[in-house]
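Hi W.,

Here's what went into the run:
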Amino acid sequence: MAKPQENGRLELLQGTLDMLILRTLQWGPQHGHGIGQAIRQQSDDLLKVETGSLYPALHRLVKRGWLKAEWGVSEANQRAKYYRLTAAGKAQLSREQDRWSQLVHAIGRVMNPAPTGKD
Amino acid sequence: MRPDQRELDDEIQGHLALSIKERIERGEDPKAARRAALQEFGYIPDARESMRRVWYSRWFDAAANFIQDVRIGFRSLLRAKGLSMAVIVTLALGIGANAAIFSVVRGVLLRPLTNRDENRLVYIRQSAPGVGTPNMTFSVPEIADLKSRVTTIGAFGDFSTVEFTMLGLGEPRVIKAGVVSGSYFEVMGLRPVLGRLLDTGDDGPNAASVAVLTYRFWTTVLKGDPSVIGKKIRLGIRNTIIIGVLEPSVPYPDDTEIIANVFTSPHHLDATMRTGRTHRMTELFGRLAPGVSLESARSELTAVHDSMMHDHPEAYSAKADVRVTVTPLRDQITAPARTILILLLTAAAVVFVIACSNVANLLLARSVRREGELTIRAALGASHGALRRTLLAESVVLCGAGALLGLAVARPLVAVVARFASRFSVRALEVTVDPSVLWVGASLAIIAAVVLAYVPRLPSTYAATGFGLARAPRGTGGVQGGVRITPGNNRRLRVFATIQIAFSFVLLAAAGTLLATLIAMQHAPTGYDMRQVLVLDVPPSVVGADRAPTIDFVQRATRQVRELPGIQGVAFGTFVPWRDARGSTFPHFQFSIEGYTPKDGDENPHGRLRIVSPGFFAVLGIPLIAGRDFTDADPNGKDTVAIVSQSVARRLFPNGDILNRKFRWTDQLFNSLPPCRIVGVVADVDDEHVVGGPAFTIYHPVLQMGFANRMFVRTAGDPHALKDPIIRTIHEVSPNQPVDRVNTLQEVRADMLSPERLNAFVVGGFAVVALLIAAVGVAGVLAFSVSARTHEFGVRLAVGLAPRQLLQLVLLEGVLIVIIGIVAGAAGGYAFAGVAARYVESIQPPGALPLVAAAAVLVGAAVVASLMPAARAARVDVLQALRTE
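Here's what came out:
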């Protein structure tokens, strides 16, 4: 799913960022910086999301109607945009989760085949 | 919902603030924290751009940029007002002329007729090229033959034109009326807007006299009064009922006010009309039978016509070479206009080319001046595309404005061109500015805009990196000395100027040729003394068509009008020169003179029949060559007399012994007239053609023929002042006598020449526009060249050249451009005329005089145009010029 980078971090696989964002926002509304930090912490610092891809992704998800953006005041006491999961976003998350488990399972089968060809 | 720039920036700032705060909390130094946060974030504009891209497509941005460019272009053009106005006016003329002519071409040539299934409608014509008769029309027996034998044409419609005195609708007056059989409207596929049209129930000698009004007559004269249906009027000798109004349609072959059934015209019922095979006055139309092609109808009709001629050899002489043609009605109506409209379209296209090259010139000069600005922009990272876009935006603004103005000009131009074209095709009368003109205007503007945007050269990379930039600030500062002119730009400017001159020369030469034709016509001797001659139409009044009352009227009117003060002579006749020849083909009749026998194979000569009263020749200034004029004594006794024109005497009796010979008409229509003794010979006049030629004319005395419908009065002073007294006197003699079309003979003549005048006017207009544009072009090129060479001139003056010599230098430069242009134009013009002559018959090579005149006008214009820049060159201040470097 990810390849190691020089600094030991993993680069995100194409298309998984949206899923990670949706997943992160399951716990409640968050601003862009917070989402990036959350992904990093929850992956034990293995995944680092570049701001250059995080923000366009957030806007893309808003445009699709999976997120809703609202202005609020951040911990730094400055205007920040908070993103919240919409109902459509929740449905999308569960779809992506299903697809993801299937993908992991399928790739696992290919990479580690059982010697007899059966599980 | 779409975030704007500000919102995106706020979001990024919010992120950075959080990031910095977090680092400081982790114990980093605030300055280092800030730097690290920025570094981690990456290049902010890129991030912002990729966020924007989610919401805004590239097309959106391109359009927004272009709008921005247009706005900038608009502002920068406002600063160059003179240039912008020159460009816009030039383009407006080019686009307006094209749009106007295109809408006339479309209206006349391309639009279908209103007639139902107009593509099945054909016009059938009988012509006799052997005796120079392009349209000899048909006689009733001929039409009957064709109708009974031809099957490929489903139905025939016939139309003939007569004149009626009309009473009961306004003033009593003589109107032109169509006389048609009942099948006519069905064949033509026309509908009534009111009442009904004529049908087969209105045919035959027992029908009632009924008539249909044309739409134009109904709307203009009767103001669209619906109560006119059922109204009784008097047409000639018949009481006629108006039964309907025809829908608007092309009036062809003749523009009549009323269309009546055959019964209304007594002439159509008499034996000459019904049985005379050579008594031809009817036009014929047909509708192709279902499934029949034009070619098969054509070949069948030709075959039937051939066998008909074979059956009646006496009516079709071999020399006349009578033949029949079948043409789709629309082609027939539009054919004469096709050539002239295509020529006009060419002229308009030429003006467009001239306009574009002039505008290109102006813009090229401007772009050289702003090379500095472009260089700076290029150096600051503007791509070639972006620079081109700026230029395109400017030219779009210019061409858009030009097109708008052009379309405003198009409306009055359409009126002029339509009037011009209406003499070739009646359809032009209904032409209005049509919406397709918008498309023509818009596409011409777009073509011009794109072409013009690619005229200026963009700064090269080399110029952008150093050389060009070093000089740029001066150029942008507006100091003229800072303008550089490269040999390439200079050459291009000259090429454009030369193109303009060449095309202008062609147009000027064409206009000059037309003008020369017009002048030749105006000064052509007519044989008449036209000064102070009034002509009046005095058609036989309602009942006064009989001999005795006519003679009585003529004699009394002559006597009483003669007694008015200021009258030198009064006479009657049957034919106002030129005016009565217009519109209809006037028949010539065969005659014989005792003592003259035609050579073998020749038929009897044809002559014009005119009836005149004593004094006619004196009133019109036609010299009597031999013998005597008619006198009031002529009607007494059995001695019927005639006077012939000089051509008759000279050609048929070269020995000069024509007097006292017996003359008689051999034509069926007049062979019942008694033979006459020739008592006089008068000079030739050609009263049918604007450009006169020898004419065989036979004059009979009114007092013996008992017919006259035109009056001629020679006055001592201003003829116009005598109009009213003359008309009053006529009404004293005969209160019901219609009097119409009172004009001087000079006015009649001028009116005949109005097509030529209009020709010369329209093409001359084009030529003047072209000349103006070209003169501006030459002046522009020289002004530019002078301002670019200020330094050089300074040096020349410093080394001792006199300012006058400098003036000559610049003038010569202008004249040189013009001469090269003229040579190119002459060569190109002849080549084009050679090609065009293959398709268009009426092209004649212009005479030497118009060519020389056109060249002289151009050289003169060039000298005038060069004067201002030349004077500026001569005034160059040496010190300042040298300092500009």
